[in-house]
Amino acid sequence: MQIRVFADERAVADALAVTVATAVRDAPHPVLGLPTGRTPVLLYKELVERARAGALDLSHVTTFNLDEFLGLPATHPGSYRHFMEHHLFGHLGSRRPRAHLLDGTAADPDAECERYEAAIAEAGGIDLQILGLGTNGHIGFNEPAPELRARTHRVLLRPETRRSNAGLFGGDPEAVPREALSMGMATILHARRIVLIATGDSKARCVRQMIEGPLITTLPASFLQLHSRLEVMLDEAAARELNGN
Q1: What is the rounded (10 degree) CA torsion for 76, 77, 80, 82?
Q2: Residue range 60-68: average pLDDT?
Q3: What angle do CA 245, 6, 64 make, to 5 degrees?
């Protein structure tokens, strides 16, 4: 595990944008796994700026998003498809990637999960998976639980996760869907390279547990310790509880 600490969230975003740009430049048909939420917003802004300046072209890239709310159409402002269009894809024009997202309105959610797994396999697997970190230790929508699901699956969201996503729903946690579809832990861990980003004081305790604690299903992010090419990018606030800081 490589841990890098930056002054602030802007510096984290800039550094990760360099990582993404390098990965895209060096591979003929790279496959990226992408997150949503507050943390990657600055990253996507930086990628858009690079694309507009002619320094980044994602048209030869395939992307897979981590998760989606169950029951929301793509046009709903709270959907993660809408989030990606608003923050990244919709600003790229001809430079946009071949994007794959879970369909939250699929008539058969389990079949949709199987379809998504097959699409990832057909693409050759994920080369670079970017992750955010939930305050309760979830990644994607792999929530703390007695056991974790290996592959893309349907999940019941915990109250703290719904509260964290309330901003997409007018600030009302009760308006956040109770279920979602998410890549599973094995799907994530099979990526050839993983970069996790975490910023802010609210993530500090979870970051420490993820990096220095045991592997436990009640902190799904702790299983990232098993990956051979994991990089953790933190701002100083998120790193403040780590030993040596």
Answers
A1: 90
A2: 97
A3: 120
pTM of the model: 0.96
The question of whether 49 is a catalytic residue gets the answer: no
Which residue do the tokens 């910023």 mark?
199
CB-count burial class (<10 Å; 0-12, 13-18, 19+) for 6: buried
Identify which of 147, 145, 240, 157 has the alpha carbon closest to the alpha carbon of residue 200.
240
Active-site option among 87, 138, 153, 227: 138
Rounded distance between C-alpha atoms, residue 120 and residue 117, angstroms? 5
* 67: annotated active-site residue: yes
- Which entry of 57, 136, 236, 241 is annotated as an active-site residue? 136
Contact between 191 and 166 (Cβ < 8 Å): no
Tokens of 1: 């595990």
| Residue among 21, 20, 4, 1 nearest 12 (CA) | 4
Quickly state the pLDDT bin for 245 (edges 50, 70, 90). low
Q: Which residue has the tokens 């606030």?
A: 237
Question: How far is residue 68 from each of residues 63, 156, 237, measured CA to CA in Å?
Answer: 14, 12, 28
The question of whether 143 is a catalytic residue gets the answer yes
CA 45/CA 56 separation, integer angstroms: 12
Asked whether 128 and 90 are in contact (CB, 8 A), the reply is no
42 sits in which H/E element: helix 41-52
H or E segment to which residue 154 belongs: strand 153-156
Contacts (Cβ under 8 Å, ≥6 apart) of 91? 48, 51, 52
Q: Which residues, 6+ apart, have CB-to-CB distance to 220 below 8 Å?
A: 137, 138, 139, 142, 143, 144, 148, 185
